[in-house]
Amino acid sequence: MNFFSSALGKNITFVRPAYFIISGFIGIPNIKYYYVFLLFVYIVSVLGNTAVMAVICLDHNLRTPKYIAVFNLAFADLFGSSAVVPKVLDIFLFNHHHIPFNDCFTFMFFCYTCLSMQALNLVALAYDRLVAIIFPLHYHVKVTHRFMFSLIASFWLFVITVSLIAVGFLTQLSYCKSVIIKSYFCDHGQIYRLACNDYSPSLVMSVLLPVLILWLPLVFILCTYLYIGYSLSKVATFQERLKAFKTCTAHLSLVAIYFLPILITFTYMEKINPNARIINLSLTSVFPPMLNPIIYVLQTQEIKESVKKLFRIRV
Fold it and tell me: From the CB of residue 185, how many other CB atoms can be counted at a distance below 10 Å?
């Protein structure tokens, strides 16, 4: 059977298929309308995140440590949407369900890297809010441009390393059970289960990845806001607490948009129809990048003022 090609090395034979077959949205009625919706979401995401990055670059008043993280969030959202949506549309709208072996792992790497970076960006913004509210007099000492650049760079290095390790383990498996991936992209959990040799390292990564890129960031953010709330309740009046929390509304909205759909999907995964689960997960990966720039423009006073000023200059 020449469908599979074997790679020999140090007494180990790796059975590698020429391609995988992505079969996530097959059998759903009127699914083409969903593809049109995805295209609309992608266009809005590209325009919105590009606009946010442009405003931050053009307005010198926004070149602060906080907006380094906001710029990086917009960049990660734009990069992530561009990694996922065009490929998903190519696979399902144009019926290119066969994806070459190496291309599948490249697709997975970019998807996981960008999705992970979105969560870690929210961690950086949570730390910024913590210092700004609890230690306002020390904010410019604790949160500097150099610190924020270093934090963002370390996050990128971390997610790239973790994603490379996860993909690297998958390349050491033999795939002789099946080549059908029941998802909308090259899903790590779906792929390692197709292997016919020991996939223990990938199984460990499947447990470790959500902890590192989902649960730990969420726990840190929740602890940050619990500490903010506790500290303000001790030293501030109701009006002061309200004023302080208003500076957090944009960030809290981003946290809710990113984490709630994922938590709901994973909580009820066994009870949800497989097609509904795939649609929910696909929306989870494309919706936050679309909504994030809209929320920041509507809820962040500095960006609203900057947009108004830039439009007055252009007009």
Answer: 25
- On the 0-12 / 13-18 / 19+ scale of CB atoms within 10 A, 13 is exposed
pLDDT digits (tens, 9 = 90+) for 233-284: 887 677 777 777 787 888 888 899 899 888 877 777 667 777 777 888 888 8
d(Cα 122, Cα 58) in Å, to the nearest integer?
A: 23
Residues 6 or more apart from 306 whose CB is under 8 A from it? 55, 58, 59, 61, 62
Per-residue tokens: 12: 């180990």
Selected residue with higher pLDDT from 20 and 61: 20
- b or e along 277-296 (b: 16 or more beta carbons within 10 Å of the residue's beta carbon)? bbbbbbbbbbebbbbbbebb
> Which is nearest to 104 in space by CA: 16, 207, 176, 36?
16
**Is-contact 272 265, C-beta < 8 A?**
yes
What confidence tens digit (pLDDT) does each residue in 26-63 have?
A: 777 888 888 899 999 999 999 999 999 999 998 888 88
Q: Please, are residues 216 and 139 in contact by the beta-carbon 8 Å criterion?
A: no
Enumerate the β-bridge partners of residue 181. 22
- How many residues are there in the chain? 315
Residues 85-114 have pLDDT tens digits of 999 999 988 888 899 999 999 999 999 999
At what angle are helices 31-58 and 274-299 packed, to 10 degrees? 30
> CB atoms < 10 A from the CB of 50, how many?
14
Distances (CA, A) of 297 to 76, 236, 272, 309: 17, 28, 35, 13
**What whole-number distance in Å separates Cα of residue 104 and Cα of residue 108?**
6
